[in-house]
Amino acid sequence: MRAMKARIVIPTFDERETIGSLIVALRRWLPPDTGLLIVDDGPPTERVSWCATSCGPTRAWR
Amino acid sequence: MRTDARLALIERTGKQGLGTAYQTAFRRVLAEGGDDCIVTMDADFSHDPAAVPALIAAAADHDLVVGSRYTTGGAISNWHPGRRLLSVGGNHYARLITRTPIRDLTSGFSCMRTDFLARVPFGEVRARGYAWWIALRTLFHRRGARIAEVPITFVERRLGRSKMSSNIVYEGLIEPWRISRRRSDGSPRG
Questions:
Q1: CB B112: neighbour CB atoms within 10 A?
Q2: Dist. CA A16–CA A1, nearest whole Å
Q3: How deeply is A1 buried, as exposed, middle or buried, from its count of CB atoms within 10 A (0-12, 13-18, 19+)?
Q4: Measured between CB atoms, does A24 come within 8 Å of chain B?
Q5: Is the pLDDT of residue B120 over 80?
Q6: Residue in A with minimal Cα distance to B26
Q7: Using 50, 70 and 90 to split pLDDT, how confident is the model at B178?
Q8: Residue B52 DSSP SS3
Q9: Which of A32, A47, B20, B88 is the most exposed place for a label (fewest CB within 10 A)?
Q10: How far apart, in whole angstroms, are the C-alpha atoms of residue A61 and residue B148?
């Protein structure tokens, strides 16, 4: 049977301290083609610091 | 700079609530296609990333899999008795009124099959807080979803503040009654 392909959806507001390590941990446990989608409601000034090193080209999607 | 094409960010202006965050994400995932299921989880490690594969595996033959604190084998770590009582009581209350047979109706840790989610009118759910989950799961149940609860250990967030507020508690008291009065397709009774 074919493995289920999943997308992980994670809403964030004030979790900037943990989201980076969570992404790393998820990568350890999930197949490499698993997509992650973060929905962030936090202040934009704090957003860039964690996103700059990890977000792909779809970052600007709204 | 390193980038990861498997990681996408939706930036929203200001705190618009849990419900609309998930609605926005679900619409995008369904529009893009290609995924068999959607896993939802918190960003603060209260949901163990090591438990995600078990949720995905259970979605092979279930439309909705709930990472459950209240099914046999489930647990909660670091909650004071008052917080635990609020959650247990709230779940019991919501289950009684909505008649949705899920022990952990408010868990944010779950896995849904996208083919079933596409048939659920999730855009009509107005709740913003934890009651969003009660409403969504009631819609799944009323549409005949195959539902499973997989035991998890929930760990109270180590950083940041809990999102629990008096507004969320109030919504949790009112929303189950509103849901119970809606038809199975999610529309209000005439």
A1: 28
A2: 38
A3: exposed
A4: no
A5: yes
A6: A9
A7: confident
A8: helix
A9: A32
A10: 33
Parse chain A into domains and list their residue ranges.
12-32+41-55
* Span B87-110, pLDDT tens digits: 999 999 999 999 999 999 999 999
**Residue B28 touches partner A, C-beta closer than 8 Å:** yes
Higher-pLDDT residue of A22, B158: A22
Contact B111, B56 (CB under 8 A): yes
| Helix, strand, coil abundance in chain B, percent, nearest 5 | 40, 15, 45
Residue B26 has pLDDT above 90, yes or no: yes
Above 90 in pLDDT, residue A56?
A: no
Q: Flag whether residue B4 sits within 8 Å of chain A, measured between CB atoms.
A: yes
ipTM score for this prediction: 0.88
- Residue B159: count of CB within 10 angstroms of its CB: 11
* CA nearest to A59 within chain B: B9
Kindly give, in sequence order, each residue whose CB lies less than 8 Å from that of residue B132, ignoring residues fewer than 6 positions away. B17, B18, B19, B22, B125
Write the Ramachandran bin of B73: left for phi over 0, alpha for psi from -120 to 50, otherwise beta: left
Phi-psi region of B146 (alpha: psi -120 to 50; beta: other; left: phi over 0): beta
Test B41 with A54 for CB contact under 8 angstroms: no
The answer to whether A35 and B52 have CB atoms below 8 angstroms apart is no
Check CB contact under 8 Å for A10 and B59.
no
Q: What does pTM read for this prediction?
A: 0.86
Distance CA B186, CA B73 (A): 32
